[in-house]
Amino acid sequence: MRIAYVCSDPGIPFLGFKGASVHVREITSALQGRGHSVHAASVNVGQGNVAPSLTAFQKLPRDPFEQRAVLDRFLVEAGADVVLERYSLESGPARDASRKLGLVLVLEVNAPIVLEAARFRKLADVDGALQREATAFEQAQAIVVVSRGLEDYVRRRSPRTPVFLVRNGVAVERFRPPFHGSALDVPAEAVVIGFVGSMKPWHGVHELFDAFVGIADVFPTARLVMVGTGPEEESLRRRAEDSRHRERIHILGAIPHEGVPGILTRFDIAVAPYRPIESFYFCPLKVLEYMAAGLPTVFPAVGDIPEIVGDAGVDYEAGSIGGLSDAISGLVEDAERRRSLGRSALARSAALTWDRAAERIGSLLEDAIRRGPEG
What we know:
Layout: E1 2-7, H1 19-33, E2 37-42, E3 56-59, H2 64-78, E4 82-86, H3 93-101, E5 104-109, H4 113-120, H5 126-139, E6 142-145, H6 148-157, E7 163-165, H7 172-175, E8 191-196, H8 205-216, E9 222-227, H9 233-242, E10 249-253, H10 260-264, E11 269-271, H11 285-292, E12 297-300, H12 305-309, E13 313-316, H13 321-332, H14 335-349, H15 354-371
Parallel strand pairs: 1-2, 1-4, 2-3, 4-5, 5-6, 6-7, 8-9, 8-11, 9-10, 11-12, 12-13
Helix pairs in contact: 1-15, 2-3, 8-13, 11-14
C-alpha cells in the first residue's frame, strides 16, 4: 500500500523533540517497516533527530493555497492509495487534494485541538474553529484516535464517521535494558527520580519539583533528573538554582530521542506527573518508554494511564503533591518493590509496540480503501 502521510501543523517539527514529533516519525517508520511505501509531507521539518527511512519526504509550504498545489503533485507522484493526515488547526489542503484525486482520507486525531488551543493558546474565533473541525471529521472516511477520551470526543463531534482506537506505541528494542554507560553523572548510590517529556503547564513538572523538595531531607541519596524543554523549563531552572538541594536537581534540557534510552537506564523511578484536566485525553509516550526501559512509573489515576500501566507502577490522586510525594517515597525506600514493578513493566510493554499500532492502522487504511471515498 502506498501511504501519503501529511502533517500541516507548523508546531510539529518532523525531526523535533516533542512527543508529537516522535509520534510522526515512529508511526511512519513503523508503517514503512511493515512493507508499506510511506511518502511523508510536513510543513515543519525541524532538526535534532535522525530522519526515518521512508520512501519519500516533501516539505510543504505553510500557505494553504500553495500547500494544495504542492500536495496535488505530491500525491500524484507518490501514486498514493490513501492519505493519512495528522489532524491540526491547519487541516484542509490534504482533504481538498484527496477529494480532487478521488483518494480516501483517514484522519489521525491526537488531541481536541480546538479546545486545547482555546484554553492554552488564546485561540480566536473558537466557534468557527469548531465548525471547521466538525467538517474535517465528517468528511474523513475514518478517524484514528489514541485514547478513549478522544474516542468519545470524536464520536460526539461526528457520530457518523467510523472511529478507531489505536494507542501510541514504543520501539521496545531500543529501550530494553541493559545499556552500557549513561549520560547521567550521578553517584552510584543515588536513587534517581526522573522525568522525560515536554515541559508544558499541564505536565506537572513544578508539582514533581515540589514533591522532590518535600522528601529530599528524608532521603539524602535521592536525586531528581528532568529531561526536556518547553515553557516551564526556565522557571524550573531558576527554582533549581535557588534551592538548597540544587546539587541534587538536574535539569538537562532537550536531548535527541536516540539518547533517551541511555538516560532512562540510570533512572530508578520514573514519573508522569500530569495535572488534573477535564476529559484527560493523552496517551503518554513517556509512560510507554518508561515501561519499555523496565522502570516503575508513578502516575496520576486519570484517563487511560491506569489501564496502560496496570501493575507496573504506583498511582496517586492527580494534583495532590502529598500523594505524589508519598508514591515516590514508597518506592525510594523499597528497592525490591521497584524491581518487581519494573519486571511487570517489561512484560506489559511487549504488547505496546509501534509495530502493533502500525499493523492496526494498516488494516484500517485497507478497509477504508475498500469502502472508497464515499464509504
